[in-house]
Amino acid sequence: MDRDLMYDECETAGEIGMIGIALALFAKSICPGVFKKKSRTWIHDPCNFVAFQVRPAKRKLVLTLSGTYGRFSRVAAAASLSEDWSRNFAEARFPDYCAYEITNPSQLLLAVLLIKAALDNYKQHGRHRASASAAN
After folding, report:
1. Residue at 102 is within a domain
2. Closest CA to 62 of 25, 95, 93
3. pLDDT-based confidence at residue 28 (cuts at 50, 70, 90)
4. Pick the residue with more confidence: 103 or 135?
């Protein structure tokens, strides 16, 4: 089962991997589904609002989130965590997605808020984008 494989992979990253497991469980609690591996990334299925990449050698977890930089900046500002967001933001390889790099457990709060905002973004825009892509 994919669940066990994802968790096994997270455990190879030590403490950061445990944060990955907690965040994956949170994501599944707000949007039922499974995480399927594509290349080196675990992608939420069916919603694709969040993906996890475990980087054990760097003791890093990278979240790829559905939404824009501005949307997530506002979420971080509302929680007084703008500095953390700015410091750990990374460009995602896909349009309308952002990446957030987690290197320590103190980033858990913002990560949870970002995942929730990514799901809200997906509910507002994700299905429409997917439908438009299928029509083309």
Report:
1. yes
2. 93
3. very high
4. 103
pLDDT at position 132 over 50: no
Residue 131 lies in a domain: no
Tokens of 19: 């944060």
Which two tokens mark 65? Answer: 């989130």
Give the separation between CA 39 and CA 112, rounded to whole angstroms: 24
CATH number at residue 97: 3.90.1150
C-alpha 132: how far from its chain's center? 23
Residue 132 in any domain: the answer is no
Q: What is the pLDDT of residues 37-95, one digit of tens each?
A: 999 999 999 999 999 999 988 889 999 999 999 999 999 999 999 999 988 998 777 78
Alpha helices in 12-68 (DSSP H): 15-30
Closest CA to 96 of 63, 125, 73: 125
* Tokens linked to 95: 């349009």
Residue 44: inside a domain: yes
Tokens of 135: 């029509």
Domain total of the chain: 1
Does residue 34 register a pLDDT over 80? yes
Q: Which domain holds residue 71?
A: 2-125
